[in-house]
Amino acid sequence: MPLKEIRVKIEKIDAHILDLIEQRTGLAKDVLEAKKTEGKPINDVDQNKVVLERVSNMANVRGLDGEEVKRIFEILIKMNIDRQHELSGEGNLP
């Protein structure tokens, strides 16, 4: 397969990844409301650990580097926490 075709496939995958990140971040309002109802803090450290452990294990099963995948999800978690702070009036995002 020519490199150009491979790059087109990668570009499509990148767009799909961005769609999924948008969907994940889009749940911030629902998560924030549920946390308020349940009396949980925006930064739920215990849940963050659960998510990171889960994705690390899932990555390892797929033959991916679990530690690297955890780093990606740490960024995703931070994005969601920042969005929740923004929605609660505590953030400074646009």
Blueprint (SSEs and pairs):
Blueprint: H1 3-26, H2 28-38, H3 45-61, H4 66-87
Question: What's this entry about, in short?
Answer:
The chain is mainly alpha-helical. Helix content is 79%, strand content 0%.
Fill in the keyword field for this structure.
4 helices; 0% strand; mainly alpha; Chorismate Mutase Domain, subunit A
Strand count, sense and closure of the main sheet? none
CATH topology: Chorismate Mutase Domain, subunit A
Share in β-strands: under 5%
Number of domains: 1
Total count of strands: 0
Structural class: mainly alpha
Description of the molecule:
The chain has 94 residues and is mostly helical. It has a single domain, classed as Chorismate mutase (Chorismate Mutase Domain, subunit A, Up-down Bundle), CATH 1.20.59. Helices cover 79% and strands 0% of the residues. It has helices at 3-26, 28-38, 45-61, 66-87. The longest helix has 24 residues, at 3-26. The model has no long low-confidence stretch (mean pLDDT 95).
